Amino acid sequence: MTQLALVIDLNVCVGCQACVTSCKEWNTSGQAGGLADLNPYGADPTGTFFNRVQTFEVGEFPNTQTVHFPKSCLHCEDPPCVPVCPTGASYKRAEDGIVLVDYDKCIGCKYCAWACPYGVREVENERKVMTKCTLCVDRIYDTGLPPSDRRPACVMACPTSARLFGDIHDPESEVSRAIRDHAGYALMPEWGTHPSNHYLPRRRTDAHHHDDQLVRADNPLHIEGRQPKPSPKDPALDDVTSW
Amino acid sequence: MRPRRRAVHDAVKDAVDGRTGGATEVRKTTCYMCACRCGIRVHLRDGDVRYIDGNPEHPLNRGVICAKGSSGIMKQYSPARLTRPLRRKAGSARGEGEYEPISWDEALGIVEERLRSIRDTDPKRFALFTGRDQMQALTGLFARQYGTPNYAAHGGFCSVNMAAGMIYTIGGSFWEFGGPDLERSRLFVMIGTAEDHHSNPLKIEIAKFKRAGGRFVSINPVRTGYSAIADEWVPIRPGTDGALLLALIHEIIATGLYDREFLVRYSNAGHLVHGDDAGEMSGLLAVDAASPEVNALYPQNKLWWDRLTDRAVPTHAPGADPYLLGEFTLADGRRVKPAFQLLEERVRPYTPEWAAEITGVPVTTIRRLAHEMGITARDQKIELPIAWTDSWDVEHSTVTGNPVSFHAMRGLAAHSNGFHTIRALAILMSLLGTIDRPGGFRHRAPFPRGIPPAAKPPNRPDMVKPGTPLGALALGWPAAPEDLFVDDDGNPVRIDKGFSWEYPLSVHGLMHNVITNAWRGDPYPIDTLLIFMANMAWNSTMNTVEVRRMLNDRDDKGDYRIPFIIVSDTFQSEMAGFADLILPDTTYLERHDVMSILDRPISEFDGPVDSVRLPVLPPKGECRPFQEVLIELAGRLGLPAFVRPDGSRKFRDYPDFIVNYETEPGSGIGFLSGWRGKGGEKFMHGEPNPRQWEMYAANNCVYHHELPPSYRYMRNWNRGYLEWTQRVRMRRFAEPILIQLYSEVMQKFRLAAQGRRAGRTPPAHLKDRIATYFDPLPFYYAPLEAQATDSDRFPLAAITQRPMAMYHSWDSQNAWLRQIHAHNHLYVNPVAARAQGIADGAWMWVESPWGKVRCMARYSEAVEPGTVWTWNSIGKAAGAWRLDADANESQRGFLLNHLITDELPWRGTRISNSDPVTGQAGWYDVRVRIRPAETGELAKTWPQFTAVPPMPGTADAVPAMQSYVAGTRKGNG
Amino acid sequence: MNPALSVILLTTLIGAGQGLFVALYVATLVAPGRVSPHFAVVASAVSATLLVLGLVASFFHLGRPERAWRAAARWRTSWLSREVIVLPAFTAAVFAYGVAQARAPAPAMEWIGAAATLLCVTLFVCTGMIYACIRFLQEWATPLTVVNYTLLGCASGAMLATALAAYLEPALVPGYAAATALATLAGLATRTLSLVRNARLRPKSTVQTAIGIKHPSIRQISPGFTGGSFNTREFFHHRTREFLRAIRWLFLVLAFPLPLALLWAGTALALPFAIAAAFAIQYAGLLAERWFFFAQANHPQNLYYGLTG
Ligand SMILES: Nc1nc2c(c(=O)[nH]1)N[C@H]1C(S)=C(S)[C@@H](COP(=O)(O)OP(=O)(O)OC[C@H]3O[C@@H](n4cnc5c(=O)[nH]c(N)nc54)[C@H](O)[C@@H]3O)O[C@H]1N2
Ligand SMILES: Nc1nc2c(c(=O)[nH]1)N[C@H]1C(S)=C(S)[C@@H](COP(=O)(O)OP(=O)(O)OC[C@H]3O[C@@H](n4cnc5c(=O)[nH]c(N)nc54)[C@H](O)[C@@H]3O)O[C@H]1N2
Ligand code: SF4
Ligand code: SF4
Ligand code: SF4
Ligand code: SF4
Ligand code: SF4
Ligand SMILES: [Mo]
Which residues contact B917 (CB under 8 A, 6 or more apart)? Predict the structure, then answer.
């Protein structure tokens, strides 16, 4: 069975927010349509976004890591948001595991959002229904788009390719390999939601060199006569010992 | 009517059937949400922008797009857009924002009349300064044809140190001019860079580099963005990188980790330099009187001291190998030293221990980094099977690379010691043998250029004549005091004092000085100031409160000190509010544009690339592209390049101009390099091609000339490449461009200051300044402002950085982007904050000797404790950008510029707060202290400015809620 | 969580309505004949009114109230759906019970009462379980949530019954007063238990598990926006700890000792007004209690938005 998902590589995410606004842009005029903004030009502007990038600082100066952390619906394999929905508006597609909201059924009771530990559902400000990442279901199957474009908007936008998209149930997929090879992990495993989206941790490349690499024979200083060889006439043990 | 929005689950069916895909129309053009210039596809539905994504076929961004690019829709439909020409209401003061709409006819009439009378009397009383634009080739041409020297773009307050420091050393620079070859690099060191111009390409490359296992080190007082994913973060105190770089050079030379072979052939390391006893020649390179100079601009007759024959020989003499160290006596008895010896002597005291004190970087780290750089460069060499011939006719069967690369930007540039710091960096890169080699630094055409480039600024006051074009391009590259633009007394001719003894190598002008100088009438008053695409009443000015006052100041007679101000802008910016006349420009989606090869094209390492922008939407309201305005004005004023001999207008419009303009009649060189010649068969030069635009349109808006592999590397000394550039007229000369470890240009200025050189000498009060800062070798000094500030009273450095999701001041009108950054905090290390009793999130004061600001604190462990910083230009003046008067930008956001001074006290007078060599604005030199706000103080930013009213032609009202759906947009005027 | 007035009103109003009905029905069982039809009609009417008011309040919680009927669809998985079904059913049953009382006492009435009581208990469970079933809202995920909802509903309902009786059927007052006191004290006990439990909770989710980085010191520096979002508004009260503590004391006083004292005084001195006041005060206390119930619940999503209580 297919389970589509995003795999997000924290090792290369620079927190540029491209995935945030490209998602908004694709979806606001798309089938998820009209992601209203309140006070767009006033105090505390706030609008509906399906994807946010947050920043955390890990550790204390000077041993600080700055971690940019993009997060959208994780399309849980066992999504707690689905069974609690009283209308059936929240559902998980059998064919590809995408968790969606049917905006025509949703009553805006927010209960599914309460039941999601990840804080990725947002009531849309104008239509007052629950919205969330659709995994760009209206792109990825759109045969009107060239095949190379049938990928989520955020994945196409991401300049660092920190966002991989594919079927995590297919062991040979790029995402499955990335999870295996780079210790991909899920968020809040303690709740048994089995998020489909995974994160790849920071990986650090260190420098290694040996001291002898500093004292090589072809050191150009020799050429300049700066590390001169002693003259054969200079005193040596040979002058004073005989074995 | 609005189509019913359907639920996603319905959409899936439609989408699978392909029913939604074809509904939109796709147009390709070039983004201009920032200066990176990515290729975009604009998807339109019913004439509205449905969405914008990256063009996968564009060489720069290869399909990706950034946060700003993806928010272009909200720029296009912003309520802050100016849509009608506006005139300041009689009786209202500048800055009050009271305007009345007028027609274009009237507006252009006003400008024409004014500019004509100035041109006929004293053209320098017209000043044209442009901000973050991409059309300096056109604005520069206009200014030159008009005859005013008072022209420059943003470079002077931006990163001229980066351009000058590198170009005067290696003939190219970072920025648009070149960059790190991350595809092949193994070690990448990024210094003082937050976002930079090469936004998307750099991100693409850094990610690939990391994935390929490369090691990424970031040197920066702050760890954000790119630095966040660095394998090692080296926090450094602002303004001290020069010390670090010189210590790295010290260690690399001391351990013999430099690439001797490379330096010998490709730099002036082995060139013999006269000692102090050689009179006029002191400190200059010894020449071989017997050899021809070849080219007076780039003489080739220098000497080596050959190791094998132990005598002076012409450089690059076959079979010779020069000493890099030592001291020798020429036949005439004069003592000479190789330049490298002088460098070695210079850096001898710059030990890692010395640098650690200054920079805060531990000694072990400095040593380790030096060793890592040297060993990686030496032991992980790349050999590409590419044959090439060098300038001395030596054939090489391979191209070698030392895979250590660097990238640096304003963290080095925006300090008043930046020029020497950047020289030090260029020298470090050269010592490692990484210039235009695989895995190192690579040039982008039209770079490398001669050192310095051949274009020279005007150098005599009489080159400015009424009714006549300026004798030279307004900006150029001085090689000696003779190239300065000063009068007989050594006084500046330009309003910004560019190319004067105060800032001799100010190759990009000093835009940050213009308003203050014009206000003071120093060196002279001007009449009309035309500002294009620069927010000089806000974020691109230092000392903002005072500058706003100057803009509105009157003399004793009640006349404005700056009599007339014209602003071309697309939005109701802070600057627009100070204009007497506002010319509403289009957005990037509504106009033609060229990213010209005459300017800063988007070239790739493998060859020149230039590109265009095509309109995908009609101009909003009465907006008119500024390009069209300039072409029209040039025609009306009869500027020679824009009219036929009979005085009639030569170019119908801007697209026509681009196709048909030639730098000289019949030169075949124009703004675009691609598809020249009658049928578009030629590159770089060829007759105008009437179908040139179409050909760009059919090719992703890009012309990419891929060089053969043998021309892609070692271009400073690559005979084939250099001669090719000459053939295609990219350059006039083809002499090899030797790396200037030791700068003769600098020495010539120094000699002039020391009175040891015939020709121009600096005025007395500037002599020791020139003598000090025009050192032919890099040296470290604390930034001028730090020298002038009591560091006990102002112990912290304050800097800004670019947020990736905002472009300068101009995105606060963008409904999506402003949600990410509606206000800013001052980031403070908790240690520093707690010491002053400032709580996380609390209101606080930051004070510099020049001003103070109230803002909110945010604790951060990712900043060096001696530094505080904030996102650049998030704070706004109330009412600007069509934001409500209570918008976060003005109430909680703040502008750090209020703390920064444009002038430093200096010997009883004042001098620009700029690098003494290049005039680069010292944005990042300010020293501050912090304290908590008192309880009971307003929870609001300080200073505050009276809110300006909406300008006529901007939206009638801003909505309380906005929901954008292409084709059925609502709630948005 | 950010307490929503509509939900606070819903749960407290229907709680009182449910409790009142239970009080009425139990009285008819324990003291057959002592409950006059008049009293029964009035009590049923008051109970039904409270239930309807609760229902009305609940609509304010919905983004799309016109579609509320759809909420009955998923009774097999959703406690909310179950509540949506049971609440109107119970309201109807109470109404029917009142009507039956008004017409003529008949055997059917017993059945209606029994059915209504069953629905009432189900409703208590449904409402409680809506909160108790969200396992990562650890403050809520306990049987105590259901018990508290039930006991506090019963207490306020019984108090209301006492007050009504004081005006209409004084003979019932002592019994009701005793029952009220019992329910209130039991409620106090279980609520205190839940407070103690919650105070000792160790959150299972931490910022470390939230972002998957194992390091003792992690701080959020930006949630990715500056003007707030649905997630910062819905799941966090934005009040100080001190404020929360004050509300806790307030409800502990208002919902338990104070109304009990008034109840005692009203009963002893036969002051119906005092008993009515006791109800009003207790109801106010329960509003505060419910506010606190929401506010105290730490949603793990807050870890992603730098929100801490
Ligand atoms: N998104 C976005 N992109 C932009 C722009 C924008 O506004 N927004 N602006 C464009 C423009 S005009 C320019 S000029 C470029 C500038 O591009 P950058 O040079 O990347 O811009 P800055 O933000 O000035 O970054 C300076 C960096 O240097 C660091 N720094 C400051 N002082 C020192 C120092 O003394 N030593 C070291 N080592 N580091 C230091 C700062 O912490 C910061 O990280 O960006 C361009 N790109
Ligand atoms: N404190 C501090 N100050 C700084 C810097 C810093 O690092 N720290 N950086 C400096 C640097 S490097 C730079 S380059 C400057 C940038 O400063 P400016 O050059 O002033 O750039 P912007 O803020 O981008 O303002 C440009 C103006 O152009 C307008 N505009 C946008 N698009 C168009 C268009 O298509 N046509 C026209 N006609 N106008 C348009 C905008 O509305 C805005 O008013 O800021 C400098 N100021
Ligand atoms: S677009 Fe990519 S790099 Fe940028 S924030 Fe999103 S995931 Fe990170
Ligand atoms: S992340 Fe939240 S909304 Fe998405 S499937 Fe999981 S529980 Fe549901
Ligand atoms: S808000 Fe909509 S989707 Fe969520 S639980 Fe309620 S009805 Fe279901
Ligand atoms: S997959 Fe689509 S809907 Fe989901 S975050 Fe990415 S762009 Fe947004
Ligand atoms: S980097 Fe600049 S040019 Fe490229 S998409 Fe972003 S805003 Fe546009
Ligand atoms: Mo800049």
Answer: B161, B164, B419, B420, B503, B504, B505, B746, B773, B774
